[in-house]
Amino acid sequence: MVESSAADFLPPARTLESLRAAAQRCRGCDLYRNATQAVMGEGPARARLVLVGEQPGNQEDRQGRPFVGPAGKLLDRALAEAGFARSDAYLTNAVKHFKWRPRGRLRIHARPDAREIRACRPWFEAELEAIEPDAVVALGATAAQALFGPSARVTVQRGRVFASPWARCSAMTVHPSALLRIPEEEERHRAFAELVRDLKAVKRALESAAPKVISRTAPTRKAARARRS
Ligand code: URA
Ligand code: SF4
């Protein structure tokens, strides 16, 4: 039997809007059963930077938008410190439905398993193909392995920028949720600084690999200053 996946639910024309609509009908695995809705990515269709998390959390599931809960707030701060505006980035997840288990009246995050991650791949692949970003950053092991293969190791490879089929500047770093679980404040600050450092490496790579604009008519400011003096 062929394993079911999101592939059977992809729309023929794949724009971000058509993908978003189609994902609501996805039955590629069982996770849709206990979730409120599929949470697709959000951000400009021409975003140069795409960030991929694991799966929507409790608040994302209710609001239908990625990274709007506590992890998202932390990610916003890290992006800002690294010199990115959240509004310039497209944020999405490897898995589109919230997987959870009850604890009392709370809904606690549960890890998507390998089959669910595999089943959901067509969605983020289609998002990346529609956007064609210059940079893609996997947040945490689930996204890193979904994007870059099972041998991806965040602890070893974090902050390195490499070319992948998804983007010329590809990288992985820790998931912001992992930072929220660090009880010790000093350690949490250090982890935050490391997340910012990784994002800055991506920013630098993006900028240094940008095509140089060499004007033949306008002198550079430095050259103009030299000529005046
Ligand atoms: N964690 C994620 O990986 N994605 C979200 O959208 C929110 C929390
Ligand atoms: Fe489809 Fe992904 Fe939801 Fe599974 S988690 S039903 S593959 S959208």
Topology (SSEs and partners):
Elements: H1 16-23, E1 49-53, H2 58-63, H3 70-82, E2 89-93, E3 100-103, E4 106-109, H4 114-131, E5 135-139, H5 140-148, H6 154-157, E6 169-173, H7 176-180, H8 185-208, H9 221-228
Parallel strand pairs: 1-2, 1-5, 5-6
Antiparallel strand pairs: 3-4
The protein binds uracil and iron/sulfur cluster (SF4).
Iron/sulfur cluster (SF4) binds next to α4.
Number of helices: 9
Shape verdict: globular
Find the structural class using helix and strand composition: alpha/beta
Query: Main sheet: which strands, in order across?
Result: 2-1-5-6
Please, what is the average pLDDT?
A: 92
Q: Helix content range of the residues, please?
A: 40-55%
Q: What is the string of SSEs from the N terminus onward?
A: HEHHEEEHEHHEHHH
Unreliable segments (pLDDT under 50, ≥5 consecutive)?
213-229
Hetero groups: uracil, iron/sulfur cluster
